Amino acid sequence: MTPPATDGFAPAKVNLSLHVTGQRADGYHLLDSLVMFADVGDRVTVAPAPVMSLRVTGPRAAGVPEDARNLCWKAAEPFGLPVAITLDKHLPAAAGIGGGSSDAAAVLRAMEALTGRPSPMPVARLGADVPVCLLGRAARMRGIGADIQPLEIAPLHAVLVNPGVAVSTPEVFRALARKDNPAMTDLPWNADLTAWLAAQRNDLEPPARALQPVIGTVLEALGACAGVRLVRMSGSGATCFGLFESRAVADSAAQDLRRGNPDWWVRACTLS
Ligand SMILES: C[C@@](CO)(OP(=O)(O)O)[C@H](O)COP(=O)(O)OP(=O)(O)OC[C@H]1O[C@@H](n2ccc(N)nc2=O)[C@H](O)[C@@H]1O
Ligand SMILES: Nc1ncnc2c1ncn2[C@@H]1O[C@H](COP(=O)(O)OP(=O)(O)O)[C@@H](O)[C@H]1O
């Protein structure tokens, strides 16, 4: 009997902090990052089919590859079961919120459910962010991305903003001046997480801002929102986020930001 189609959510990944602590001989950087996942994201549907196919739909489909270059395809193919994949794209691409990696993780989950076995290929080979996206919840991520420690963190309320410029991750890493920055300090057990975060950094923010100065404009706009508690860039950019004390305050900030900047992608969300 043909197994039924499976449907999965691919949440946006947010790096609340991102320290670059070293560089390996192969050029990959060592990271120390607090990662959480949003309740905004893409959707993937995976169904057994006579041949492999991929269709990308949704408001952010433009420019996303519909062939073997797509991480969804790369995640499914090694299982050896041909599937028809539909990717309903809502997250901006090349945006520092791991859209492709989270899509790949959703396809991996679907393929595991359809075939009853784990990925025949090491998942980190799909990308440094894929292992944490497969976990899909708050974690401290170290090494080049595969060293993951799940964390119990109370949900945070945020607004994500992308100004519509694509940023190349390798280009940002190349533009980073210092590769051996200090690691994060240990997370607090019961103190205010936002206060702790304020003492951490995203080391990729200065090089990304130098490449795309509009990131500075986004950070300023988020910083001017009523009730904002922390403002920072995620991943290699250009998406930035603000943290707020409640979802209602985040919703209201998102509304104001959208009104003032109709071309920006602005989403209030809850991170967990
Ligand atoms: C920077 C981060 C932080 O979470 O997020 P994004 O900005 O992509 O969202 C990730 O490490 C990105 O992960 P991912 O996008 O999966 O990276 P990969 O495809 O493996 O690598 C893309 C390129 O980024 C650089 N890279 C990536 C990860 C890493 N630890 N060191 C690196 O130097 C390399 O130049 C590599 O060729
Ligand atoms: N499923 C996918 N969604 C978006 N982009 C993808 C996907 N698969 C491959 N790509 C390619 O990967 C590049 C990086 O996209 P993405 O994973 O969204 O970046 P980031 O990790 O910085 O948010 C894109 O420019 C696109 O060409």
Automatic annotation (TrEMBL):
Pathway: Isoprenoid biosynthesis; isopentenyl diphosphate biosynthesis via DXP pathway; isopentenyl diphosphate from 1-deoxy-D-xylulose 5-phosphate: step 3/6
UniProt superkingdom: Bacteria
Domain GHMP kinase C-terminal: from-to ranges: 185-259
GO BP term, example: terpenoid biosynthetic process
Reaction catalysed by this enzyme: 4-CDP-2-C-methyl-D-erythritol + ATP = 4-CDP-2-C-methyl-D-erythritol 2-phosphate + ADP + H(+)
Record key words, sorted: ATP-binding, Isoprene biosynthesis, Kinase, Nucleotide-binding, Transferase
Residues given in the record as ATP binding sites: P92, A93, A94, A95, G96, I97, G98, G99, G100, S101, S102
MF GO annotations: 4-(cytidine 5'-diphospho)-2-C-methyl-D-erythritol kinase activity; ATP binding
EC assignment: 2.7.1.148
Domain GHMP kinase N-terminal: 72-136
Annotated catalytic residues: K13, D129
Database matches in Pfam families: GHMP_kinases_C, GHMP_kinases_N
Function: Catalyzes the phosphorylation of the position 2 hydroxy group of 4-diphosphocytidyl-2C-methyl-D-erythritol.
Record-stated family: Belongs to the GHMP kinase family. IspE subfamily.
Matches recorded under HAMAP family: IspE (MF_00061)
Name of the protein this chain belongs to: 4-diphosphocytidyl-2-C-methyl-D-erythritol kinase
Gene name tied to this protein: ispE
